[in-house]
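Onboarding guide, step 5: your first structure request.
Type a short instruction followed by the sequence, for example:

Predict the 3D structure of this protein.
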Amino acid sequence: MAADNRKPRYRYFTHPIASAWRGGNSPKKLPHDALGFQDNVYARLLTRWTRRRLPQRQESICSRQEKPQPSPHDNEMRRPLLIEHGAKQCAKVGTLRAIAWFGLQTSCRGTSMPLLPAAPRALRRIVIISDFQDGDGENAEPRSPVSFRKQWLAGNRGPPPRPVERGPNLQVIGGYIERLPLAVLKAGIVDCAEVWTHWHGATPPTEQPGASPFLMRRAFQANGSEPPFSSNDMLGHIAAFGPPSILCVWGLGVSEDVLLACRSSFKIYNSIDVPALRVPFEVSRHFDLILTGSDWQSEAVCSRHPTIPTIIMPIGPEFASELTFRPIDIPKTYDVIYVAAAQAYKRHDILFRALAKLPGSTRALCVCGYGEMMDTLRSTVSELGINVDFIGPPGVPFAEVNRLMNQASIGVVCGIDDGAPAILTEYMLAGIPVLANSQLRCGLQFITPETGLVASPEKFHEGIRDMLARLETFKPREVVLANWTWPHSLRKLRPFIGGLTR
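The system replies with structure tokens like these:
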């Protein structure tokens, strides 16, 4: 009988990830008897691979053809095993690439198959993880990521990621949480944008409509209440649908296992506060870019992570929306407005002491979206005999904030230990100049001769008096439109994420 010179037959193992890769994005098919080699060879190869990353392919990390990267949860959640025929072929680069393609990771002694495969990333997605916590109850013992993954795939915890139709109706609006992802979406860098938060208790929070219908919001059950926050629910979602292309983590951050599960993502961090890093070293070391609010914050980051790039781009005043905040033609009924939380670090006392030194006809408005100090603030105003009105908490919609700002002649920022507040450019876009505390630790770069003034706490009243006397000399909206609206901020960010665009 003539020798059988046919090529070996290829087929996939019966594993959930197999069918997921049959649609054309799979690597070269591998033979069915790929498991027939010695365990020690297998262990050596995989140990070598996990210690040294393979060269990166020259393609966008948002490409639809991109390979998922391994994570420390692979042992629990995925172990699709496809390798080339025969033990002698195991040392070939193709074998390691096949292993890398499917995110395989194992110990030197175990070769058991996984419970959870990682879904291939089908679209480019940006995710913002805010440190907002909803709910006030205690969670039961969290279920495993495997259990949550099954629920996500079954549609019991929300819809899967979907591309959105970009068009003229897509506008960059809302607060600082929404504006960056909407800007990246509008620019065509990603196909969809999401905001993730955590919740506590037995009942998920009621979904509140956001500023934009183009922004998906998801709330994940937290494992506990201690930052950085961990969530098996979030890990299950990532295992079900793959990590996002761009992952932005703000504030108190997430646990390291989430970042490891998103190893292939381009990861950005901003503390949105005075400390440049509000997460422990084992978390911050995973970021690819850190946004800061000042030179000294950048230096603090560099001292901990010399190899991680930084850019002075506080997400609050940057990515400003000229549509959300704009001048409107209404009477000026207040001299001063302060939009800030009713919390101690916002230093309302500096404003109140300044008002006490000015004529009694000087009127001020304080808008507080949240905070626990309202009783104290009202009591102080009563004791000083100054003319101050309060609105909130709770907060009011952006359109109402814009209307209230337009009722005032100037806006103030009184804090010292405050991250660069978003309200800086929001005041300016509403057409009113800003008086800022000269001791503000982040954000003074937004105060120019055309946008406002700075004054010390002791001379804050002089700053108010000076600005009210020459309002016509300021052009705050024009300066923001020329420097800090979202197209300008995105232009500065693009060099860092340039490879993400098609």
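Each response can be followed by summary notes, for example: The first strand starts at residue 125 and ends at 134.
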